[in-house]
Design goal:
heterodimer; A: 81 residues; mainly alpha; 30s Ribosomal Protein S18; 4 helices; 35% helix; B: 121 residues; alpha+beta; Alpha-Beta Plaits; 4-stranded antiparallel β-sheet; 3 helices; globular
Chain lengths: 81, 121
């Protein structure tokens, strides 16, 4: 193995997922793009954390605003069973 | 200074096409009478609501982009709240990011639906 920074043996860091929005050079995340937003919410309707979605901080910020707007106009649920 | 806004509102689902157009014109009229300009208007059609609003499961969605002074946008919000035909509305300011995204041709962007003519163009 190549020289990687030494880490404590117990914890393992999973590979950082690439931000899917950066990959597409998305400028803005629109609240009307329901199909796309759905990928970033859980079955319960919660917004997935960056740890799971792999989004970069910038796009996660845009995403959360878009999801919240989509909820207001009933494109997405606030809670889903 | 005029700001770019976008409003999305949901009309009651039982309206016929003519009734929808009439209400869209009335709402666009609120913007124009307050010195704003309607840029585009798009009828998204009847969609299923993610949750019930006023015991209804679906609604007719309309999106309208406009530029106006801030008080005009406030007045529009007020009028939409008072309007019994409108189930829900959302007025947002289009920031430079949103405008840039709208200007840039997006590969996955929704196909532009036929724009409904705004009154007093």
């Amino acid at each position: 193995m190549a020289a990687k920074p030494k880490r404590a043996t117990k914890e393992r860091r999973p590979k950082r997922k690439p931000c899917s929005f950066c990959a597409e050079k998305v400028l803005d995340i629109n609240y009307k793009d329901v199909g796309r937003l759905r990928k970033y919410i859980s079955e319960r309707g919660k917004i997935l954390p960056r740890r799971i979605s792999g989004n970069c901080a910038k796009h996660q910020r845009l995403l959360t605003v878009a999801v919240k707007r989509a909820r207001v106009i009933a494109f997405l649920p606030f809670v889903a069973e | 200074m005029k700001t770019d806004y976008e409003v999305t509102y949901i009309l009651r689902p039982q309206f016929e096409e003519a009734e929808v157009t009439e209400r869209m014109n009335a709402i666009a009229g609120v913007v124009t009478t307050n010195g704003g300009d309607v840029k585009n208007s798009e009828l998204l059609g009847k969609k299923r609501l993610a949750y019930e609003i006023a015991d209804l499961r679906e609604g007719i969605y309309v999106v309208m982009g406009f530029t106006a002074e801030a008080p005009a946008a406030k007045e529009l919000e007020r009028q939409l709240r008072l309007n019994e035909d409108v189930l829900r509305s959302l007025v947002i300011k289009l920031d430079k990011r949103a405008l840039a995204a709208a200007a840039a041709p997006q590969p996955v962007a929704a196909a532009p639906a036929p724009a409904i003519a705004a009154p007093r163009a």
